[in-house]
Description:
A: 208 residues; 5-stranded antiparallel β-sheet; 57% helix; 19% strand; B: 68% helix; globular
Amino acid sequence: xxxxxxxxxxxxxxxxxMLGALPATALxxxxxxxxxxxxIKQSGDQLVSIVNGPGSNQAKSAKxxxxxxxxxxxxxxxxxxxxxxxxxxxxxxxxxxxxxxxQTLAYNITNQIRAYKGVTFAVDGAKPGPEGQMVATxxxxxxxxxxxxxxxxxxxxxxxxxxDVVVEGTSLRITERSDYxxxxxxxxxxxxxxxxxxxxxxxxxxxx
Amino acid sequence: MGxxxxxxxxxxxxxxxxxxxxxxxxxxxxxxxxxxxxxxDPLKPANQAFYxxxxxxxxxxxxxxxxxxxxxxxxxxxxxxxxxxNNMDAPAQLVEFMAAGKPRDAGTTLVRFLLNSTVGIGGIFxxxxxxxxxxxxxxxxxxxxxxxxxxxxxLYLPFAGPSDLRDAAVLPAGLFLSPTAAAPPSTGLTIFNxxxxxxxxxxxxxxxxxxxxxxxxxxxxxxxxFRSLYRQHRAAQLKTINERDIATPPAWYPTKxxxxxxxxxxxxx
Lengths: 208, 269
């Protein structure tokens, strides 16, 4: 039990920094398998070339954040993660939440660049899933066992976007939703408690 | 990985259950009540106490040892240690797959155990995996789950981590399925048991150093995050076993009928 749980954790958090958190259902039809596969291949190649390329961590981090904004449906993921509390939140809270959500993701990316130096990945195949095309990849970091990572690709705003990451059967957006909703539940259903916790976390990470 | 964990577990199980239960919110507060029901964690106060206990234990004992261990080992060594531990689990898994009515996986487990114990020098190497007999995983909790036993409320066990009522209830039974349980008792065997249990724990923890640190750093409520990860992972393990469980059509069946019995091509995951 412990050994396999280890693999989940390893896998799930191998990709956490790349995605930060996770998506919402799109009305448009999911892209077909080839489109999704090519999209993941291209996105992954760009990501790997930035991480393993030259430049300071600061410069890399800026490039990565720009890339992530292009390939990941961050707003949709943020809404999914907030779940039913999205409707409870006031419009101002929704705005602030999405802003913090983007910020958390950016900090996670910056913090993890060094750990991903030397990363390689291979696209294994794609099959349709309930939330979009599931593209299977193998992500390898030096000194670590390879992790099987599935990227869920859906059509968002007319283009393919990553809406979730699944590692060993654990979905990053669902995990993140449990995390956030637990904070809100523990504070009497107040969305403001979550926003405070997110701010605290960001300032903690920023402080190093 | 059983003896140490389970003997400590049984010592602590009773006070856990006697320790506080969470007070459910009144049914009149529908949203809060629904959230409570979905968490399915009625023992949350006790669970959280054990979660904190394990964290302290980890910070002062297990993690430092694991950090030292990972400095003196390579990923390859840790892989072989992991393979050895997995091989020790194989006889139990053979029984569990048979009990669950999964002959294909039982066969894979048997071949793996025979090959790895001999050619693989007691399981330190995994030649069976190289031959295409990739590791399949099960445990008693999943066997019960296959029979439709629900997971029950979430439990966080001291020394053993995330669990649920179903999985925790069968932990002691798992001990009797270990190959060392069948051997005649001796001091040497006892030392081996504790040694291999300890090594397994440290080896696992060493592979998780970055991961657990990341979870704790990046989640707002690590307790809830581990709970969610555990449940999702167990559900996925069960799904994987069921997806692999396909009939073996006799070789003399016409191709068309063979294909009809297989929703997916042979060998596909």
